[in-house]
Amino acid sequence: MTTVPRPGDAGHRTQARRWRLGQTPWRGEGSHAAPRARVIIDNDFSGDPDDLYQLVHHVLSPSVEIVAVIASHLREGDPFDAGPDTAANAFAVAEDVFRRMGLESTEVIVQGASTGLTSVDEPRDSDAARRIIAEAMRDDVDTPLFVAVGGGLTDLASAYLMEPAIADRLTVVWIGGSEHDGLAYPPPDGMPIEYNLLIDVTAGEVVFGGSELHIWQVPRDIYRQCLVSDAELRMRVRDQGPLGAYLYDEVRLVIDRATQEGRGPAETYALGDSPLVLLTALQSLFEADPSSSDYVLKPTPALTSDGAYRPVAGARPMRVYTRVDTRLMFEDFFIKLHEFERWQGAV
User: Fold this and answer.
1) Which residues, 6+ apart, have CB-to-CB distance to 338 below 8 Å?
2) What is the pTM of this model?
3) For residue range 216-253, what is the model confidence (pLDDT) as tens digits?
4) What does the alpha-carbon distance between residue 78 and residue 27 come to, in Å, rounded to a whole number?
5) How far, rounded to the nearest angstrom, does the alpha carbon of residue 110 sit from its chain's CA centroid?
6) Residue-range domains of the chain with CATH
């Protein structure tokens, strides 16, 4: 449901102060440090606007180098964006966010496949899949690579099918998948197949069951914990310049629509993609890790066509997060947004 910009309506939204990835002029002199990790962001930016918050937060986090932003597709007929080409819409939204921030590094934005996989053996070739492969196979850097996915797994699964050697050269951080038995219960009237997995179940089957990819999973019960109140959004986002007003208005559209459909009103909204920032950019100084959040190690299960987990004996271990540090995650976002908009507004 994120507003997709129309051709020719972007000029007035471009910030006066311009910058590029790797620069942090709002932090003052002497505050720059080399990034500790590389991140490929992969999200369906024309869908739920929580991904806008994640994108802004990630590009304002200097501890990671954003090497690509993949604009991915939604499922056909998705209530947030019925299409027809949701990947193209996501690409337009990502470019629009960069313009609103004065961020000139639009060359990192790449479009993913427009539809999901039809077979666990056949990839969807795309610029996005090839960008994942190229970054994973680099031998001129030694920083760890995270592929941070807030939507479907099409482009990652395709990259693996095209070049299986990437499996040992990156870590997948995925927001998606249903609850694990013994760890949590489904929500009342929850979707039988979790929303992000439903975008491309076949890609989920590739990533979980058939590959050697290393996975950090934030399942549905955990991303539903990432609630902020409307009061927080009004006072700490909406009032932070044009960018903050835009972010708030996009969430407000969803809240108002849900209220009209009889599912509201509510005083909270789930910014469920924000753990992608927490787990990659907000790691501990010593013995680097997302040490303020909790996880369990489980053998990676296979995924069935109906979205269920099937145990696999002797499978590689995966992290399943059982709690995320929402205090650190949201306070860091609020402060970075304020700091950035104070700099942008000082023209």
Assistant:
1) 236, 240
2) 0.97
3) 999 999 999 999 999 999 999 999 999 999 999 999 99
4) 39
5) 14
6) 32-233+270-325 (3.90.245.10)
